[in-house]
Specification:
The complex is a heterodimer of chains A (116) and B (113).
Chain A: E1 4-7, E2 10-13, E3 19-25, E4 31-37, E5 43-51, E6 54-57, E7 64-66, E8 76-78, E9 87-96, E10 103-107, E11 111-115
Chain B: E1 4-6, E2 11-14, E3 19-25, E4 32-38, E5 45-50, E6 54-58, E7 61-66, E8 71-76, E9 85-93, E10 100-103, E11 107-112
Parallel strand pairs in B: 2-11
Antiparallel strand pairs in B: 1-3, 3-8, 4-5, 4-9, 6-7, 7-8, 9-10, 9-11
The chains are: A mainly beta (116), B mainly beta (113).
């Protein structure tokens, strides 16, 4: 089965600790994304990568870091510098559209991070 | 002004009725438009996408796009209780350097049995 996996589903950490969220896809998609969702809000882009060994900051990159060493994997590290890390984190991947002009994104199941 | 705006709802419709969900966007250069369904506690699931002005139908779902009015909508015919979810509108722009997808905050739909 092709798809996107994120682990773990729930994660609890103490304030001041870094934590890494896993995202793996076997869809052979070039582009991968990390979003954060807070209650009652839309998705906010943290980082994205259009190709291996390259990534760009999204709208809320401060306090986060990523790597893209393999096409299949795009882990996100939430550092202690992130002031409000408790949120639902979603990883997505995409292929070039048939029109060549846009991307349809497919999401993993998400990781709910709670920092106390 | 938000880049992608949706009424947060909740929108309540009786079972069997048509649910109409609306979305407006601010960037006239936006190229592609998506509707995602998100059940509570779950990740978004792509249900429709539309690129050209007009209507696009897929089963009980119809997406409508009016680029002149910067407006995209989703109609759900014969609404079922299982359609109760939050519906996210997403718009893809093409700034220099690549694509950027902006998500609305979503509209909560409640279908009453």
């Amino acid at each position: 089965d092709g798809g996107i996996t994120q682990s773990p589903k729930y994660l609890f950490r103490k304030e001041g600790q870094n934590v890494t969220l896993s995202c793996e896809q076997n869809l052979n998609h070039d582009a991968m994304y990390w979003y954060r969702q807070d209650p009652g809000q839309g998705l906010r882009l943290i980082y994205y990568s259009q190709i291996v060994n390259d990534f760009q900051k999204g709208d809320i990159a401060e306090g986060y870091s990523v790597s893209r060493e393999k096409k299949e994997s795009f882990p996100l590290t939430v550092t202690s510098a992130q002031k409000n890390p408790t949120a639902f984190y979603l990883c997505a991947s995409s292929i070039p559209s048939r029109t060549g002009g846009s991307y349809e994104q497919y999401f993993g199941p998400g990781t709910r991070l709670t920092v106390t | 002004q938000k880049e992608v705006e949706q009424n947060s709802g909740p929108l309540s419709v009786p079972e069997g009725a048509i649910a109409s969900l609306n979305c407006t966007y601010s960037d006239r250069g936006s190229q592609s438009f998506f509707w995602y369904r998100q059940y509570s506690g779950k990740s978004p699931e792509l249900i429709m996408f539309i690129y050209s002005n007009g209507d696009k139908e897929d089963g009980r779902f119809t997406a409508q796009l009016n680029k002149a009015s910067q407006y995209v909508s989703l109609l759900i015919r014969d609404s079922q209780p299982s359609d109760s979810a939050t519906y996210l509108c997403a718009v893809t722009q093409r700034p220099r350097g690549g694509f950027k997808t902006i998500f609305g905050a979503g509209t909560r739909l409640f279908v009453k049995a």
